[in-house]
């Protein structure tokens, strides 16, 4: 018990100390009257209403932070889920067929370098609506690392496992389920983790441009109304949620690996 | 048509890379009777593994072919189960699952779920792995992994068991222990075995006949030696057995004098 408490303290205390130090420096740097940015104390004072009541809804875009974050998360969920399904499917194709790789890989290598926001105007033109356009931007941002990592995972399945599968006459779906997926799973989850991080990066930027409800729009709206403290609060939430999403995907990967052991 | 159980008929194999063609095996013919234990011995790189892969159906022969019960072998299958050099267990499965994945595939429809489970456990017992069946391959020793690999292969009830230098990476004591287990399994199941080795003592101890390969390129069977030692064979009794010593001498002579002669030629 004491040992566990000690190991917990070892991992929690250093970042807390760093955080305290950063806040102290921040306070010192912004406490002079002419400062352009609010001090941490001022941020908490000015955003107190937002902190204590994230669930208010006055109609339109005047909602609590919970609703903005929920709207962003919903868009990410749809776009990312599509990216995961399509990414793994195309990754499997590119990884298992030399011709699919020759045909598609160069194209992907170019497309993946396009910044997410560059897709937005095209996406708006195609969908004529902000919501599906944002979802598409999430999809197109997250799909490349998933495709590429899945393909690498499939391609690096050891010859031994393939020989075992051949002796057992595993073909098609059987090979996919028993050999391909579990052997490539660590790579696939690496791709999925990179993908979720990029999705969350892209949604904030995309929402700034499309408007409506969403944390990105909230930040842009706060800037237009000179509510700098609100922006800082929103950034804290964005960071924490991004961190949670990353850990969630990681956890999912571990759970799947363990569920595999249980069956 | 031959009446042999397993026969390799004029098997040749060439690999082509770019515009260079290398002939690895040249006109290899070998007949194996049902229940016979045959060892293939030769220096490393002489094409032993390629020959085994051809029998397994994993590699196609360039010329000639392999017959099993008078039917040509042209693709891999569980009737020719392979124990691979580096165990090749699936690391995400437990010991039991590594065997049951093969049992489920081969006997689905022919055995009930309970029968398949019992058959899996029975085969793990044959290699004395019944106490570790919930462990992962990463949690067991190299010798244990190889035992699971053997259990997986014999659980398929193959017509021919193919062993590709299965004990090469193990220490001498573990190897001796596994050789005894393989001998016992062979005695119990009367499986036909084709085994690759570069260990002279291993070959003489286990085999009914030893096929000795000349050095590559274009390796072939230089000589076949009958090991006329009665079974069951006991490792310790053989040390001073004149037949054993004579066989051992003959294989060593082949490997170190005749193949060197071929090399020089």
Structural class, judged by helices and strands of chain B? alpha/beta
Largest interface: A-B, 19 and 23 residues
Helicity of chain B, as a percent range: 25-40%
Shape of chain B: globular
Radius of gyration of chain A: 23 Å
Shape of chain A: globular
Q: Provide the CATH architecture of chain A.
A: Orthogonal Bundle
Q: How far do the termini of chain B sit from each other? A: 35 Å
What is the number of strand segments of chain B?
10
Poorly predicted runs of chain A: none
Round the mean pLDDT of chain B to the nearest integer and report it.
89
* Approximate helicity band of chain A: over 70%
In quaternary terms, these chains amount to heterodimer
Alpha-beta classification of chain A: mainly alpha
Major pleated sheet of chain B: 6 strands, mixed
Number of strands of chain A: 0
How much β-strand is present in the residues of chain B? 15-25%
Give structural notes:
The complex is a heterodimer of chains A (263) and B (265). Chain A has 263 residues and is mainly α. Chain A has one domain: MetI-like (MetI-like fold). Chain A has eleven helices and no strands. Chain A has helices at 2-30, 40-46, 48-52, 65-96, 98-111, 119-127, 130-155, 159-167, 172-210, 215-224, 228-262. In chain A, helix 4 (65-96) crosses helix 10 (215-224) and helix 9 packs antiparallel against helix 11. Chain A starts with a helix and ends with a helix. The model of chain A has no long low-confidence stretch (mean pLDDT 90). With 265 residues, chain B is α/β, with parallel strands linked by helices. In chain B, 38% of the residues lie in helices and 24% in strands. The longest helix of chain B is centred in the C-terminal third of the chain and has 23 residues, at 242-264. Chain A binds chain B through residues 158, 160-161, 163-164, 166-170, 174, 178-179, 182-183, 185, 257, 260-261, and chain B through 56-58, 75-78, 80-82, 84, 86, 88, 90, 92-94, 101-102, 105-106, 136, 156.
